Amino acid sequence: MKRRYFETFDALRFLAFFLVFLSHLPLAGFPILRLFDGSGDIGVVFFFVLSGFLISYILLYEKEMTGTVRLKKFFMRRILRIWPLFYAMILFAFLTPYLLGFAGIAYSTKGYEPNWLMSCLFLENYMMMSTGTFPNVSPLRVMWSLCIEEHFYIIWGLLLYFLPIRRIPVLIIGAIIIAYIGRVIYYNLVIVDMDIFTNIDYFAYGTIPAYCLIKKEEIIERISRISMSVKYFIAAITVAFILIFPQMTYATQLFIKPLTLGLLFTALIFFTLPTENRIYIPRNHIISRLGVYTYGLYLYHTICITFLMKLCEMEGIDLTNIFNVIILGITALVCSIIVSMISYYLFENQFIKLKKYFY
Questions:
Q1: Which of 1, 18, 41, 106 has a CA between 20 and 30 Å from the CA of residue 51?
Q2: CB atoms within 10 A of CB 253
Q3: Using CA atoms, how far apart are residues 90 and 113, in angstroms rounded to an integer?
Q4: 2 belongs to a structural domain
Q5: 286, exposed or middle or buried, with CB in 10 Å at 0-12, 13-18, 19+?
Q6: Number of structural domains in the chain
C-alpha cells in the first residue's frame, strides 16, 4: 500500500482559511455580510478535522507499514513546519508597538498585554481562557488554535504510538466523550472552550476516514458508489450550517455544533478519498495553489486587515460603507497572499526542505 497525497486538501485548507478571514473583516454592520461575521470558529473547526485526518493518516500508515511510529522524526517534521513562522510572528508581535510608534500609528490597548513566556510555550489559548479576552496585538489573537494543534500533535502522537491500530475506534469514541464532558464543565464554570480537551473531538472525527483508509478500504469503495448529486447535496447542507450556526445562541452552538460540523466535515473528507466518483479539486486549480500558503495566510491576514483598517481610520475612510469594506477585504486578501507567498519561498520553505531528513 503506497502512501497517498491528497490534492483536494490544499483547496479545502484555503476554504477553511477564507472563513476565518471573512470573520475578521468589519462586517457586523451589514445584514447580508453579517452571515460570515462568526464564521471564523467554523473555519478553525474545519482546520482541526482536516488536521485530525492528515496526522492520523500519517501515523497510522507508518504503524501499519512498520509496526511502530518514529515519534522523534514525526515531532521534528512538525517542528520544522510550525515553529519557524510561529516564533517569527511572536517576535513581530513583540516589536509591533515599537514599529507602530515609529510609523506614528496609534497602538491598540484593547485586550491583555502578552505574556511572552506563555506565548513561546504554546499556551496563548490558556491566557485567553483565563482573561476572557484576546491579546492586544496581532497575530497573537489567532494563535490559540495553533496552540491546540501543537497539543494535539503531542497527545495523538503518543496515543497512536502506544495503542494498537485495532483500538483506534475506542480512542475516537473516548475523545468525543471527553470533549463533551469538558464543554459541560467549562460552560458551567463560564470558561471558554479553547483547549485541546474541549476540541479533541474535532480531531477524532477527522481520524475516522483516516482509519477507514488504512483498515477499512471497503468503506471507501462503498462511498465511491454514492451518487455525486448526493455528495454535492451534503456539501450544500454543510455550507448552509456554516451560515446558520453563527446566528444561534452560544449554548446551542456549544452542544449541537460539534457533532453536526464534525460529521459533515468528516463526510466531505470521505467524499474526496475514492479514486473515482469523488469530490476533486486538482492541484493546479487556483484555490489549491493558494492552499499551499494557508499557514502563512492564517497568521498574516490579521496583520494586513488591522494595518489597513488603521490606514482607513487615519485617512477618514468610512468603514460603515459596504463598498469601502469590500475594497478593504479584497486589498487585505491580496496583501495577505503576496506576503504569505514571499514568506513561504524565502523563509518557511528553507525549513520545510529539512523535513526530508526525518522520514
A1: 1
A2: 18
A3: 13
A4: no
A5: exposed
A6: 1
Burial pattern 290-318, b for ≥16 Cβ within 10 A else e, equals bbbbbbbbbbbbbbbbbbbbbebeeeeee
Give a yes or no: residue 269 inside a domain. yes
Grid cell for residue 202 = 474535532
| Distance (Å, whole) CA 154 – CA 148 | 10
Measuring CA to CA, which residue among 55, 19, 60, 10 is closest to residue 39?
19
- The upper half-sphere exposure of residue 124, i.e. CA atoms within 13 Å in the direction of its Cβ, equals 30
Q: How far apart are the first and last CA of the chain?
A: 17
Q: Across-strand partners of 112?
A: 135
- Residue 215, pLDDT score: 94
Residues 6+ apart with CB under 8 A from 103: none
Residue 51 belongs to a domain? yes
Q: What is the pLDDT of residue 177?
A: 96
Query: What is the CB neighbour count within 10 angstroms for residue 1?
Result: 9
* 219-228 pLDDT tens trace: 999 999 999 9
Q: Which domain holds residue 241?
A: 8-358
Task: DSSP letter for 279, please.
Answer: -
- Indicate whether 272 belongs to any domain: yes
Question: Cα 227 vs. chain centroid, distance in angstroms?
Answer: 29
Q: Which residues of the chain have pLDDT under 50?
A: none
Helices (H), the chain: 8-23, 39-66, 71-103, 116-120, 124-131, 143-162, 168-188, 200-215, 217-224, 228-244, 250-272, 286-291, 294-315, 322-343, 349-352
Residue type, 214: I
